TrEMBL record:
Protein name: Uncharacterized protein
Organism of derivation: Listeria grandensis FSL F6-0971
Organism domain of life: Bacteria
Length: 166
């Protein structure tokens, strides 16, 4: 397994024992149920139109309704992904099991477990869902000029493995 890319899932012992291990499933939550302070906060997004100024006329009420709808209908699950070079040295602090933020936010405040999955097997396990999915690293930024707002949302042929964001 040392030549494989690994995806680590932090969770509580209770969730791992009752749901993940016996059922071979990973629970997904909508944005209203996440506990990460950055993921659950209200972000100052606004609607814009590519072809006209119509997007600038959306009211705050409409935006609030859209955000509420998206928070209820977009589901996600979180993994930390390691490349091979990160785990050749078992004691480097870049390893997933040293990530104190992940242990705090997802690993039941440092009392939970971290499950390791073969990235490619996990990805292929979800390939038959037929759902519209996005996967990739999470980047927090306050410089909104660096975000590719028009990055296409793609339907994964290989499934999902990390975060679901639009």
């Amino acid at each position: 397994m040392l030549n494989e890319k690994l995806a680590y899932h932090f969770t509580s012992v209770d969730t791992a024992v009752k749901y993940i291990l016996p059922n071979n499933t990973i629970m997904m939550n909508n944005f209203n149920k996440v506990n990460d302070p950055k993921e659950s906060k209200d972000w100052p997004f606004n609607f814009y139109s590519i072809t006209s100024d119509q997007g600038r006329n959306f009211s705050k009420t409409l935006f609030s309704k859209a955000r509420t709808y998206l928070n209820e209908h977009i589901f996600m699950t979180c993994f930390k992904v390691e490349e091979e070079e990160q785990y050749l040295d078992d004691y480097t602090q870049n390893r997933a099991f040293f990530d104190m933020r992940m242990w705090n936010e997802y690993g039941d405040k440092h009392k939970g477990v971290m499950l390791a999955f073969d990235f490619d097997l996990l990805e292929s396990a979800y390939s038959d869902t037929g759902e519209l999915m996005y996967s990739g690293p999470v980047r927090y930024t306050y410089d909104l000029t660096n975000i590719d707002w028009f990055q296409p949302i793609k339907k994964w042929e290989g499934g999902y493995f990390e975060f679901f964001f639009f």
